[in-house]
Amino acid sequence: MNNVDKIRCAWVSNDELYKKYHDEEWGIPVYDDKKLFEFIILEGFQAGLSWLTILRKRENFRIAFNNFDYNLIAKYDSNKIEQLMNNEGIIRNRLKINAAITNAQAFISIQKEFGSFSKYIWDFVGGKPIQNNFRNLSDIPAHSDLSDRISKDLKKRGFKFVGTTIIYAHCQATGMVKDHLTNCFLHPYNINQ
Predict the structure, then answer these.
(1) How far is CA 178 from CA 9, 122, 172, 181, 185, in A?
(2) Which residues contact 48 (CB under 8 A, 6 or more apart)?
(3) Is 43 a catalytic residue?
(4) pLDDT (tens digit, 9 = 90+) per residue, 83-112?
(5) Would residue 59 show up in a list of annotated catalytic residues for this protein?
(6) What is the number of alpha carbons within 13 Å of residue 29 lying toward its C-beta?
(7) 11, 25, 31, 51: which is the annotated catalytic residue?
(8) If you count DSSP H runs as helices and E runs as strands, how many of each does the chain have, helices first?
(9) pTM for the full predicted model
(10) Which among 192, 148, 189, 143 has a CA at the least distance from the CA of 169?
(11) Between 1.10.340.30, 3.60.15.10, 3.30.830.10, 3.90.228.20, what CATH number should domain 28-191 receive?
């Protein structure tokens, strides 16, 4: 099956960047703390915008936010915030920039408590991805009991821009919840055929 013939999830447009993200990242389990933090930051900035907008600016975010080094981001000061506010390559929203700093600090606290953020977040699903079998895009929920619980706990720990819808997207992106539609070439049913 060549790249053109592949049946993908219904949300994927014809944009090559979107296809690449869907095919190579979305739904693949992520256990690396740095990558998990990157998704938390990007999903926070995505609030109210399309994911494709964020994907197009992702490299700019990497540069602007020190390659998502949470130890550095946790120490950002007012000068760095103003530098980010003047960076046309990213989403220039002061609340979201401040949230990235707050989230880096909270992320580090979780690492200290649990040994890694990965251990903390994956414990919500017993360390194994949840495989869903949705047939239609309309069947996929915007949030779930799982994302409600994670969101509530993250907020309690000081995180910002981690509402249940954002957290459900995080679970999908990092493979905690596998929501490839049943007709998608990446759904296990189709992979095993």
Answers:
(1) 12, 14, 6, 9, 13
(2) none
(3) yes
(4) 999 999 999 999 999 999 999 999 999 999
(5) no
(6) 12
(7) 51
(8) 10, 2
(9) 0.93
(10) 143
(11) 1.10.340.30
